[in-house]
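Input protein
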Amino acid sequence: MFEPFPGNYVWNLSTNIALNTGAQLNEVLDAIAPVIPLSSSGDDATEAYLEAYEDLGDRLVGLAEEDLAAGHTLSAATKYERAAVYYLTGERMQRVGNERRKVAYRKMLDAVDAFIQHGAEPVTRVEIPFGDSAFPALFYRAPEASEKTPVIVHVNGLDSTKEMIWGAPLRTELAKRGISMLIVDHPGVGEALRLRGLTAVPESETWAGACVDYLLTRDDVDPNRIGIVGWSLGGYYAPRAAAFEKRFALCVAWGANYNWGELQRRRADREGENPVPHYWEHVQWVWGKNDFESFMEFAPRISLEGVVEHITVPFLVTHGSNDRQIPIEYAHAQYQNAANSPDRELHIFTPREGGIEHVGGDNMLPGASFIADWVADRI
């Protein structure tokens, strides 16, 4: 993994994710140079990290506005898209309730709206009705799709967002194979959490079923070819959804989050590394818990033990051989216990292939290509 911040796994992973989701290397290197010496200062330096990426986002937005003034809408769109990556990279590292975080997030959403408005991508923002509320999503119709397109519902992890998924290479790898994507900010992430107060629930089949309900209202979707993919904590959400929402035709876990609740106990005992600063505040926010004790009492519910046995569709489990967040034994347990899947596969990415860190944080393309091939072979 590219490690510009010596000894700071969290900042390094965040910057690698940015580079995998649309950032440009030289822009990033110029922006982070002043904060590299602060990388050993712990969580207290994360506002400086935000400032570095926010300033870069502001610069790109300014350049995009100049493009628009000159009538160069497509050039403007690419800059807005990149600006959104930078705003999000800084924002998601901040403490819950940080006012600067809220400002950066709003800038990110505005940049994405501008990108969609001025760009040429076949993407639309949609709303997924859910109980008395709704959560937002991006529907990307693959340019090579058939009249009735197959669709992958891509769900998030603990602290990613639909905009991050948008920039990752799986969307374009699937599109080359004629497969469209519904990218959701479901309860517990992104806009659903930040702007609508929808916290996460262990029963992911409830909101995943709402995604299927929405897709079935579209006359351009093949109802028999809807699959679900989840990365990181989505490696829990997606298999749980596929186990109990039988309208999904297949399932992929990109990162085998088999027993996330147990993992929290390990982290509380100071085993492993935190994926984001202010970790315990963050997970309490995501799951709607007021304190550490109530969260730890609740956490064991977030497990696929006794759940993956209910998966009865093709099921792919992938994992990085150097994943420093999810133990590799979870990948084997998830695969072995999904014995009722008629077509299951486990793939561990090696240094020869790349994509060995958490969800391919070092290189997402090997995972994206492998998953896209596996999905295309089946739907």
The radius of gyration is 20 Å.
